[in-house]
Write a structure and sequence with these properties.
The chain is mostly helical. It has 2 domains: 46 residues; 234 residues, Rhomboid-like (Rhomboid-like fold), CATH 1.20.1540.10. 60% of the residues lie in helices and 2% in strands. The protein has a two-stranded antiparallel ribbon. A hairpin with a 6-residue loop joins β1 and β2.
Length: 290
């Protein structure tokens, strides 16, 4: 077995919740109360993956793989020209892999796409900017809340963002285009705004005003870009930020991370994979009819 995945059976490890040394087989951390702080002997192996236990790498790798898959599914995306449209996957391929929005969610009943859309991107620049933000914000959020709660915040805020965008796209058709929701929408920006919302709450809850103000400043600047650049999903950004802030309040950074948070984080990842699989399996018959 590779050293990275080797299970530790004796000795001490650092508790993932409070950072204190505990026995690898201890049932409970005496400092913070976290149950099974040794994580079945794999705590040290997870820590080697980084502060976020490798989640940023998973998001980046998964997003790149799905972007490449979208181009291969419909090679017409290779032929698009222009700075912002070059190598952009077609709507057909993004729909198949799990794009969200008013049409998939309300007209076609593909409600699970609010989970899958965050892993898809509409072009190379879209992908690049988002993975850079994930690479920066995921470890920071994991340091504040713990890696498992960071995954929960990322997933739930993405769902909130795409759900709000789909609702706006379906019911607020009378609004100007830059204020309207999306018929089709993809991208990691909704959960990225959720991470910013969580960091803002962390700053207020823990008294770290500099951290909170910086995250809020990023959110405001990125939000303003949505009103000056075309094809930006402002409702997804708003829903993601609010969702991330509210979930962060519920998780409370003053409290230690628990084992059930780890279970919930794995459930979030499994749900995202299942949503992409469901999109492909149900999307193939729809595309075959068109």
């Amino acid at each position: 077995m590779p050293a990275l995945l080797r299970r530790q059976r004796t000795g001490s490890v650092v508790c993932p919740s409070c950072g204190k040394l505990v026995g690898v087989n201890d049932e409970k951390c005496l400092n913070c109360g976290r149950r099974n702080p040794g994580m079945w002997g794999f705590a040290q192996a997870f820590r080697r993956l980084g502060q976020d236990f490798g989640f940023a790498a998973v998001v980046i790798g998964g997003s790149i793989a799905l972007y490449a898959a979208a181009l291969l599914i419909d090679p017409a995306g290779f032929g698009r020209g222009g700075l912002f449209s070059a190598l952009s996957p077609t709507t057909r391929s993004l729909f198949l892999l799990g794009a969200s929005g008013a049409i998939p969610v309300f007209e076609l009943g593909r409600w699970w796409t609010v989970l899958s859309a965050a892993w898809l991107h509409g072009g190379p620049l879209h992908l690049l900017f988002n993975v850079l933000w994930v690479r920066q914000l995921a470890p920071e959020t994991a340091e504040a809340y713990g890696p498992a709660r960071m995954v929960i915040i990322y997933t739930v805020s993405g769902v909130c963002g795409f759900l709000l965008s789909s609702l706006a796209g379906h019911y607020l058709l009378f609004l100007p285009r830059f204020l309207g929701g999306a018929s089709f929408t993809v991208g990691a920006s909704a959960p990225i705004f959720g991470l910013l919302g969580a960091i803002v709450h962390y700053g207020r809850r823990r008294g770290s005003s500099v951290v909170g103000r910086q995250a809020l400043g990023y959110a405001v600047i990125l939000g303003l870009f949505g009103f000056v650049m075309r094809d930006i999903d402002n409702w997804a950004h708003l829903g993601g930020f609010v969702g991330g802030y509210l979930v962060a309040r519920w998780l409370d950074p003053w409290l230690p991370e628990r084992v059930d948070h780890v279970v919930a984080a794995f459930a979030c990842l499994v749900a995202a994979v299942a949503a992409i699989a469901a999109s492909v399996l149900t999307g193939l018959p729809v595309l075959a009819q068109r």
